[in-house]
């Protein structure tokens, strides 16, 4: 049995609960089901999004040739991308990227503004100090 797969034995009366992918495809979910760790039965929504955007065959194709260590990250990407795409069918992840880029640009502008204020403040205090020196020497 896959250790990542949640155990529903104590929670459900149905010990053979299929994962969301197998439930959708109306097939028996086996212990070695490649999608079960990522699409548990109680999270049908994630599967529906991934299936709508990529299709089950493509999700399996994408993850099949990956190193098993990378598979979980790839599945998280697939789920994230398809969920964002479901929320924003026009821009999808590009909308998230554009929003983050504008936040970065705003942050950089704020940093540059703060640096200019700091430089100006240092110049003002040096000018003030030199005026005080020349004022006291006269
Ligand atoms: Zn399954």
Automatic annotation (TrEMBL):
Signal peptide: none annotated. InterPro entries: LOB (IPR004883). Residues 17-118 form the LOB domain. Belongs to the LOB domain-containing protein family. This is LOB domain-containing protein 27. It comes from Acorus calamus. The lineage of its organism: Eukaryota, Viridiplantae, Streptophyta, Embryophyta, Tracheophyta. The gene is LBD27.
């Amino acid at each position: 049995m896959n250790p990542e797969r949640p155990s529903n034995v104590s929670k459900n009366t149905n010990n053979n609960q299929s994962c969301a992918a197998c439930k959708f495809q109306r097939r028996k979910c086996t212990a070695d089901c490649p999608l079960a760790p990522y699409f548990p039965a109680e999270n049908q929504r994630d599967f529906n999004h991934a299936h709508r955007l990529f299709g089950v065959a493509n999700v399996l194709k994408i993850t099949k040739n990956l190193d098993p260590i990378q598979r979980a990250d790839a599945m998280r990407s697939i789920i994230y991308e398809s969920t964002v795409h479901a929320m924003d069918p026009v821009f999808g992840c590009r909308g998230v990227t554009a929003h983050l880029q504008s936040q970065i640009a705003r942050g950089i502008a704020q940093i540059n503004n703060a640096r200019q204020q700091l430089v100006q403040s240092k110049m003002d205090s040096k000018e003030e100090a030199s005026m005080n020196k020349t004022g006291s020497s006269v």
